[in-house]
């Protein structure tokens, strides 16, 4: 990698569950070695409380996060853009690394349904960190 630290943008529709869990894991695992952003094409009013609870089980606090609207600037400023079910709403810029993670949406799900989604995201983040740092 270059002298500057890589940046990753996680995008899902509401920026309330999957992308927030992914951002929380990346901050926890990579520390300050990777810049972390998350956004949604249609942000919710608040983070999914079940996603917050699932992350808290692993000692990761995402309660202070707020859903943010996806901007062209956020995509342009990121080296890696990881989408999670937002489809064509995500802007595309040549030269960026794009990944689409097929993950179930935790919205409206109970904690037992959210844990496997969380664990899948954690494994993907560990792989991503090993590739970027």
Automatic annotation (TrEMBL):
Gene3D superfamilies: 3.40.50.2300. InterPro entries: Ptyr_pPase (IPR023485), Ptyr_pPase_sf (IPR036196). Keywords: Arsenical resistance. CDD domains: LMWP_ArsC. SUPFAM superfamilies: Phosphotyrosine protein phosphatases I. Residues 6-131 form the Phosphotyrosine protein phosphatase I domain. The keyword Cell cycle does not apply. It holds the Pfam family LMWPc. The keyword Metal-binding does not apply. This is Arsenate reductase ArsC. It comes from Microbacterium thalli.
